[in-house]
Design brief:
The complex is a heterodimer of chains A (about 110) and B (about 450). By secondary structure, chain A is of the alpha+beta class. In chain A, strands 2-5-1-6 form a four-stranded antiparallel beta sheet, covered by helices on one side. A two-stranded antiparallel sheet of chain A has the order 3-4. Chain B has a single domain, classed as Orthogonal Bundle (Ammonium transporter fold). Chain B has 16 helices and no strands. In chain B, helix 2 packs parallel to helix 4. The longest helix of chain B is centred in the C-terminal third of the chain and has 31 residues. The chains are: A alpha+beta (about 110), B mainly alpha (about 450).
Chain lengths: ~110, ~450
């Protein structure tokens, strides 16, 4: 089992969701985060006080999948999130030792789908 | 006998003041200024002023949060910029007496617009400048209404130029035709109590044109944009409802029975339309919605605006109940069929509601409410007034359509109207103003 974590541009979320549904990946958790990669931050000015390099809003997806779903999940996220500009985000794939569905007490691969 | 210096000064001051008072009374004797009327019109002007920030929150709540300050800024800058435009040239262009295209610059910088004496053609019982500042608030909110159509994608610089040109070359002439001394639609006998044609149809058509030419938001066909803060919109709608008492009842230009009528029918129509829209939501979408209810209230306020001084409560209820039906169809069926992105339904509510209100005035107007008005089709069985209303509506639509299109094209050629795709994605708050409305972390 793998845990796929993706940090993407907020305005690409809808496209990524569409692509994931098309790839039959339906279970995702989404949260709003602040981040800073290579993309330079934005400038903010409040009463003349300038702040640069601020953190940008990003969206973080967490998707737990079985091994045979990993590639199609990655492809779907890439397809939906890619604009070709800096700031498109990153995908991390982590090993996932255990998964439990609370309602049924199912464990492992059974619990993921 | 010793008299203290202070007492002497007081006595002298008293004598001098008395003399000055008599002197002033002898010469100018301002003709029949009514203090009650003046007070009411000044308060009404303040009420209408509050509508523009109210509109800012109504619209602001409906956009995504990355564009919140963009909307607030556009509304507040209109308040500031048009206040200056109005006292310098706007009032003169709209209201200086003339039978031509507009009033010209006779009253440039309020030259000849008295703070004491009335201008009897417009308001015989209040100082001329009280009428001027009341009208200023109308000139401010009208271009602010258009913001709803191009929300979330217009460059601030382009917006500013567009607004000033539009106010000068579209609003001021139309205001002159309908309300100005010698205005040709006024002479034709068109009834527009508080600005159905001048304000709402005018802004509504401008909204349609700008929505058509600026194009859809990039997200428009991909997913529905959810309002980021409906409570703000409710607050904004409530402020609009409150301010509208000044807009409509203040348009009586006096503290009198006509103002009372306008006040009552304004409230009645807003209430009927709010209920009506909520009911339509309930029937067609399963649940009555908050956004539907406030949209209905605003539509009702729009529709009663031209009629407020000419119809009674029965007419107000009919106008209110029906305006929601027309606007509901416009925003939830027609807009999607035709595929233009009037983002916050400035045309769907103000354009459609304004047209219905202006025509309904020709149906429900009654001389028992206002002897200076006329009898509408449903009151007298005579369609004459309805045809005049139709003509005024048609003229306003055509002029606003062409005028807005020309101004838009000029601004687009000078600075480019629309932000680029990346700026649109990041939002107007950061890209146009270097600020954000809300922080996530401290």
């Amino acid at each position: 089992m793998k845990l796929v974590i993706a940090i993407i541009q907020p305005h690409r979320l809808e496209q990524v969701k569409d692509e994931l549904y098309k790839a039959d990946v339906n279970l995702i958790t989404v949260s709003e985060v602040l981040g800073h990669g290579r993309q330079k931050g934005v400038t903010e000015v409040y009463r003349g006080v300038r702040e640069t390099g601020n953190l940008l809003r990003k969206v973080r997806l967490e998707i737990a999948v079985n091994e045979n779903y990993v590639e199609r999940t990655i492809n779907a996220i890439t397809k939906g999130a890619k604009t070709g500009k800096t700031g498109d985000g990153k995908i991390f794939v982590l090993d996932l030792p255990e998964c439990i569905r609370i309602r049924t007490d199912e464990r492992g691969s059974e619990a993921i789908g | 006998m010793k008299i203290s210096a202070s007492k002497l000064i007081v006595c002298m001051g008293f004598l001098f003041a008395t003399a000055a008072f008599c002197f002033a009374g002898d010469i100018s004797a301002p003709p029949k200024i009514d203090s009650g009327d003046t007070a009411w019109v000044l308060i009404s002007a303040a009420l209408v002023m509050l509508m523009t920030p109210g509109l800012a929150f109504f619209y602001g709540g409906l956009v995504r949060r990355k564009n919140m300050l963009g909307v607030l800024m556009q509304c507040l800058v209109i308040l500031a910029a048009l206040s200056i435009q109005w006292v310098l040239i706007g009032y003169s262009l709209a209201f200086a007496p003339s039978s031509g295209f507009w009033g010209g610059l006779k009253w440039f910088g309020l030259n000849g617009v008295s703070i004491y004496a009335p201008y009897t053609d417009y308001a015989p019982t209040i100082p001329h400048q009280a009428f001027m500042i009341f009208q200023a608030m109308f000139a401010i909110i009208t271009p602010a209404l258009i913001i709803g159509a191009f929300a979330e994608r217009m460059k601030f610089s382009a917006f500013l130029i567009f607004t000033l040109l539009w106010a000068t070359f579209v609003y001021d002439p139309v205001a002159h035709w309908v309300w100005g001394s010698g205005g040709w639609l006024k002479n034709l006998g068109a009834l527009d109590f508080a600005g159905g044609t001048v304000v709402h149809i005018n802004a509504g058509i401008a909204a349609l044109v700008t929505a058509l030419v600026i194009g859809k938001r990039t997200c428009y066909d991909k997913y529905a944009v959810a309002p980021h803060n409906l409570p703000f919109s409710v607050l904004g709608a409530a402020l609009l409802w409150f301010g509208w008492f000044g807009f409509n009842a203040g348009s009586a230009l006096g503290a009198n029975g006509l103002a009372v009528n306008a006040f009552v029918v304004t409230n009645t129509a807003a209430a009927a339309a709010a209920l009506s829209w909520a009911l339509l939501d309930w029937i067609f979408n399963g649940k009555p919605t908050m956004l539907g209810t406030i949209s209905g209230a605003v539509a009702g306020l729009v529709a009663i605006t031209p009629a407020a001084g000419f119809v009674g409560v029965t007419g107000a209820i009919a106008i209110g109940l029906l305006v929601s039906v027309f606007c509901f169809i416009a925003v939830s069926v027609v807009k999607h069929k035709l595929g233009y992105d009037d983002s916050l339904d400035a045309f769907g509510v103000h354009g459609i509601g304004g047209i219905w209100g202006a025509l309904a005035t020709g149906l429900f107007a009654s001389k028992t409410v206002n002897p200076a008005g006329a009898d509408g089709l449903f009151v007298s069985g005579n369609g004459h007034q309805f045809l005049i209303q139709l003509a005024a509506v048609a003229v306003t639509i055509v002029y606003a359509f062409v005028g807005t299109l020309v101004i838009y094209k000029i601004v687009d050629a000078i600075v480019g109207v629309r932000v680029n795709e990346e700026q649109e994605a990041i939002g107007l708050d950061l890209t146009q103003h270097n600020e954000r409305a809300y922080t996530m972390l401290e």
